[in-house]
Write a structure and sequence with these properties.
233 residues, single chain, Rossmann fold, alpha/beta
């Protein structure tokens, strides 16, 4: 593997970001995993991110604390109730209360800063616009706009040392397709965590939007769901 080929991978500990890390490894990059504790109520995902980074052979992992509870505005960073038992149609009808204002803009900015320090021009992110289209910062239009910004806003970009690229290999895949891809690349989804409202012991609720989509993805893929549910649906 070419030691100069480095990529920063945003790694939350969830199913999609774990798959994105596996894809970056498949693509021949030495991976620097960036995990961000933003005050999310499901902070257990940070532990999952550490497990995934180790299992998938990330060269390095950095965990940054950036508490977005200072702003609030989301059910993930305040005591606003987490939506439960919603249909996929209801989920995609509008922007859900679990949207964290500007989260992916903030995360990509941090990944861009680290990439520039590393001399890397590649950032991987597990965003998806098919099975969960309610978040505006998961759309291809947003990714394209941020990529343009990255090349205008950095010393490395202005000096034409290279061109920054935001890789979103899952953006047009269904959840079932993502799971099939990850399994083919050796991802152990039992190490990941997706639930927005887990029990104190980390068990998934099985009823939040993220749990519903994850469970449906495994069912559609025909692969056993390794998730540990508190009250298994």
């Amino acid at each position: 593997m070419d030691s100069a080929r480095r990529a920063v991978v945003l790694l939350s500990g969830g199913l999609d970001s774990a798959t994105a890390l596996a894809v970056a490894r498949r693509d021949g990059f030495r991976c620097h995993a960036l995990t961000i504790g933003y005050g999310q109520r499901h902070a257990v995902e940070l532990e999952a991110a550490c497990r995934v980074a180790a299992a998938l052979g990330a060269d390095e992992q950095r965990v940054i604390e950036l508490d977005l509870r200072a702003f609030g505005g989301s059910a993930l960073t305040t005591d606003i109730p987490i939506p439960r038992d919603r249909s996929p149609e209801t989920m995609s009808a509008d922007i859900p209360i679990t949207y964290v204002p500007a989260r992916n803009t903030v995360f990509l900015s941090l990944a861009l800063a680290w990439a520039e320090v590393l001399g890397s021009f590649d950032i991987y992110m597990g965003v998806n616009s098919i099975d969960y289209s309610g978040y505006p910062d998961c759309r291809p239009e947003f990714i394209a706009a941020f990529e343009q910004l990255a090349n205008l806003a950095t010393k490395a970009g202005v000096e034409n040392r290279g061109r920054f690229r935001i890789h979103t290999p899952l953006i047009q895949l269904s959840k079932a397709d993502i799971i099939h891809l990850g399994v083919s690349l050796g991802v152990d989804y039992g190490l990941t965590h997706s639930c927005y409202d887990p029990a104190p012991d980390g068990a998934a609720c099985g009823r939040c939007d993220s749990c519903v989509l994850r469970r449906a993805g495994f069912e559609a893929a025909g692969i056993a769901d390794p998730t540990r549910y508190g009250n298994r649906p």
